[in-house]
Amino acid sequence: QVQLIESGGGMVQAGGSLRLSCATSGLSFSRYGMAWFRQAPGKERTFVGGISWDGRKTWYSESVEGRFTISRSNAESTLYLQMNNVKPEDTAVYYCAAERAQYGLAYPKNIFGSWGQGTQVSVSS
Fold first, then answer.
1. Residue 117 has what pLDDT?
2. Torsion over CA of 68, 74, 77 and 83, rounded to 10 degrees?
3. In which band, very low, low, confident or very high, does the pLDDT at 123 lie, cut at 50, 70 and 90?
4. Exposed e or buried b for every residue in 15-40, given b needs 16+ CB within 10 A?
5. Alpha-carbon distance 96 to 22, whole Å?
6. What is the pLDDT of residues 6-47, one digit of tens each?
7. Which of 34, 73, 83, 92 sees the fewest Cβ atoms within 10 Å?
8. What is the mean pLDDT of the chain?
9. How far apart are CA 12 and CA 34, in angstroms?
10. Could you give the CA distance from residue 3 to residue 116 in angstroms, rounded to a whole number?
11. Across the chain, how many H-helices and E-strands are there?
């Protein structure tokens, strides 16, 4: 079955950096657009960034544009999120997700059918 396993979360001070990873299995990774979402306590889950199936196109929410970078290694079936200059408002559980349809561009409004269990990121001021 499809598995997405996030790692790399933790506690960091404001202005610091973290790199999240999402290792996948049971999925033809190179065929799927992928994305990162996050959910802060008491809030809805929101889109952070997406990357097309071939890695050529990326999208970001306004709140992380210029600070976060999404990338992928199709050879390793792994998705990454480099988080720089983090802020306390970045505190959330971060989830990776795979699109339901193949060869997608991972637009925020697309349908994502597979999800990881999440990894906690906590940013102190």
1. 97
2. -10
3. very high
4. eeebebbbbbeebebeebbbbbbbee
5. 6
6. 999 999 999 999 999 999 999 999 999 999 999 999 999 999
7. 73
8. 96
9. 25
10. 7
11. 0, 11
